[in-house]
Every structure is written in C-alpha cells, then in structure tokens.
User: Which sequence fits this backbone?
C-alpha cells in the first residue's frame, strides 16, 4: 500500500491537519524461522536462501504447513506465494489467520487448483464466532504459478481488507450496528498449508488429484508480520488506536481503492455469497450495505 498515491495522500493529511500517522512500510522479508514454525510433516518443507524462502510439498502420503509463533490482535500480514504449477487439480494452498477456540474467528485465502490450462480460483472467507459461510471466489488476472505475488490482510477494528499485490479484492466491514459479529477480541495465529482436497476443491470434487504429477510444490517467501502480538487469552491490544493501521486513513478504502475493488468485482468475481439466494434465501445483514455487496 505504500504507493505514490499513498505518499501523496499522507502528505496531504500532514498539510491539512499538522499531524501524520506513521505510514505503512513495505513488508520486510525475514527468515522463515523468525516468526514461523512448521506445523506437521516437517520432512515435506524445504528451505532455501538461508531460510528466506521455503517450499511446501504434497504427495499421496501427506501435505504440510506452518504457523506463526505468536498470536495477534489486528495488524497487517503479508506473504509472497508462488502456487503449484501445471496440473494442480484437487490441491489447496491456504494462507489464513485463525483463533484457537471452538467459536473461532478466521480470515482465509484459499487457492483452489485446476487442470493444466485452467485458471486457479481464489476463495476468501471470514468466520466470526465460529460461523463462516461467507465465501467469495474470483479468478486472478495473472498466472499465480509463474512468479511470486503478494497476498495480504489488513485487519483493524473497522474493517478487514484482502489484497492481491496492492489491489483490494474484498472488504469485510465492521457491521456490529447491524448485529453482525466482527473479529475484535480473539488473537489469531497465521497459518499456511498445502493439502489434498479433491473431494471438493476442483469443480466440486469432480476433478481428482493426479498423483502421477506429485510432488506438488508451493513456494513462499516474504514472511512478514506487522501486528499487535498478544497472548491467546488477550481480549484487547495494549496499543489499540496507536498503530498505523488504526489511523483514520485505514478505516476505509480511499476512492481509488474502491474503484480497483469494483474492477475486481465486475471482471473477475465468479461467486459471492451475498448474491446466492438459493443457498441463502435471507440475505446476510452485512450484504445490505450496497458498497460491500
């Protein structure tokens, strides 16, 4: 988000108000082991470039994953990922935040593989109080298996924004005034995984994983966290309101970002739970806010 536009905007805010919130910095790539640990199948993770780049392997025996060492209440979380190339049908590469209890909160990026020549599907979801069913699906405007691309979440008490590179692809606003729960008091860990989900991931499970193509490999770098680290029992962030992501300019998208989001919705969205009247005859309350449909 530290684009020339943001620099101009922040400069304008400084001139207008005489104060300047600390601007967001470009994510700083750090070695994997600084903030993360493997979660399972340690032998299916390979390390490169001094641990600043890793690969997750999936074969017919197991996938693998990793998680952050700490838990966080609010912040900006970024990962650079290069997805499984070629025939990736049946596989899911995930990057998400999740709390630890049964009524958990969760913020999901899930990349659903496909047959060679068919595009990946990026599915996002938000769980609050253990309830999800807020899926949105898009096609990406590039091939995510040919090069690293940046995927990030901005989470504060006003909104959750999903970004691909610097493009917002989804916004989930705090609609507590409509009776909608919002993640605000359950610290989350950051997770990523590569696993087999051929019972649902590709064409609803019709396309099965071709194990002759194994191992499937997803690559990661840029293991960046800029969040308020808290214990899993914490109910608030000690620096609430003081960090850059809490400032006024991050409480909503600006006009340029809304236009970019509209571009994604119009050109690349293939499913939105807000528009699914078969599955949800009664519209979710947050969908009534026109901007967020």
Assistant:
């Amino acid at each position: 988000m530290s684009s020339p536009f943001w620099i101009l905007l922040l400069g304008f805010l400084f001139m207008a108000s005489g104060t300047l919130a600390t601007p967001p910095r470009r994510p700083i790539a750090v070695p994997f082991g600084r903030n993360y640990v493997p979660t399972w199948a340690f032998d299916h993770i390979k390390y490169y470039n001094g641990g600043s780049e890793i690969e997750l392997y999936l074969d017919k025996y197991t996938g693998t994953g990793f998680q952050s060492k700490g838990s966080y209440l609010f912040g900006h979380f970024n990962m650079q990922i290069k997805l499984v190339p070629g025939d990736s049908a049946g596989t899911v590469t995930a990057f998400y935040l999740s709390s630890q209890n049964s009524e958990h909160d969760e913020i999901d990026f899930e990349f659903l593989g496909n047959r060679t020549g068919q595009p990946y599907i990026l599915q996002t979801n938000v769980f609050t109080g253990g309830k999800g069913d807020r899926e949105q699906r898009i096609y990406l405007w590039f091939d995510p298996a040919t090069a690293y691309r940046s995927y990030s979440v901005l989470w504060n008490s006003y909104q959750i924004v999903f970004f691909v590179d610097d493009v917002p692809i989804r916004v989930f606003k705090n609609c507590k005034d409509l009776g909608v729960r919002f993640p605000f008091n359950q610290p989350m860990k950051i997770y990523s995984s590569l696993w087999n989900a051929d019972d649902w991931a590709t064409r609803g499970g019709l396309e099965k994983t071709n194990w002759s193509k194994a191992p499937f490999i997803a690559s990661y770098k840029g293991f960046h966290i800029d969040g308020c680290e808290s214990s899993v029992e914490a109910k608030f962030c000690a620096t609430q309101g003081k960090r850059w992501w809490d400032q006024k300019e991050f409480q909503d998208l600006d006009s340029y970002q809304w236009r970019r989001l509209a571009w994604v919705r119009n050109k690349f969205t293939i499913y939105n739970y807000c528009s699914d009247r078969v599955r949800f005859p009664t519209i979710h309350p947050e969908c009534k806010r026109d901007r967020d449909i």
Notes: The CA atoms of residues 110 and 223 lie 17 Å apart. Residues 4-17 form the longest helix (14 residues). The chain has one domain: 26-292. Residues 1-23 have pLDDT under 50 and may be disordered.
